[in-house]
Amino acid sequence: MTTLEQLQQTAGKLYQIVNTEFASLDLSLLNFKPAPDSWSILECLEHLNRYSRYYNPALAKAIAANSDGNDMQSITYSWLGKKSLDMVRPQNTKKHKTVKHMNPNNSTLDRKTIQEFLQHQTELINLLGSAKSANLNKKAVPVEFFKLLKMRIGEALEFVVLHQERHLQQALRVKQQVAQQAAA
């Protein structure tokens, strides 16, 4: 299985997690915060939505501009790509500050946040499919918070999926805390 196929499979699983674990929850549970400075389930999803609003169109543009049939399916990593991926890997338990405009803390959110996430996820799954004809090693995706830096298409796709995986694990932990509080 290629890296793109693995990413596409993971993105599909993340779609299912949101659909099965969160979509049917009561709005008060979706907005429950374990602590004032931590995020609710919806805040985790809104954070990902904010990234998707930027990265999905940036990836679509990069893939379209670099899909000449001369595909490069294996991903090689730049120092920026390695650093970015290491930072968002779900196994990396170190907390990182997010840039202010990507921080959804204390936002007023509702079910539209879930619908938007699912819509973005469908777009991402399609982008991963269309990336099969792209040169994944082309530096073509500007980094959101510092657009002068560019990530390779493959790195950026992997970054988006790992970042989602990290924050959906966080949202699942919040759901677990909600259940523990309800049981207490």
Describe the structure.
- This protein has 184 residues and is mainly alpha-helical.
- It has one domain (3-12, 39-183).
- The protein is 59% helix and 7% strand.
- It has helices spanning 3-22, 27-30, 41-65, 79-88, 112-130, 153-183, and strands at residues 139-143, 146-152.
- A hairpin with a 2-residue loop joins strand 1 (139-143) and strand 2.
Structural class: mainly alpha
- Tell me roughly what share of residues is in helical segments: 55-70%
Q: Biggest sheet, in brief? A: 2 strands, antiparallel
- Strands in their spatial order, largest beta sheet: 1-2
Record the SSE blueprint.
Layout lengths: L2 H20 L4 H4 L10 H25 L13 H10 L23 H19 L8 E5 L2 E7 H31 L1
Antiparallel strand pairs: 1-2
Helix pairs in contact: 1-5, 1-6, 3-5, 3-6, 4-6
Structure characteristics:
single chain; 184 residues; mainly alpha; two-stranded antiparallel sheet; DinB family protein; DinB-like; DinB/YfiT-like
Briefly characterize the structure:
It is built from six helices and two strands. The chain is mainly alpha-helical and 184 residues long.
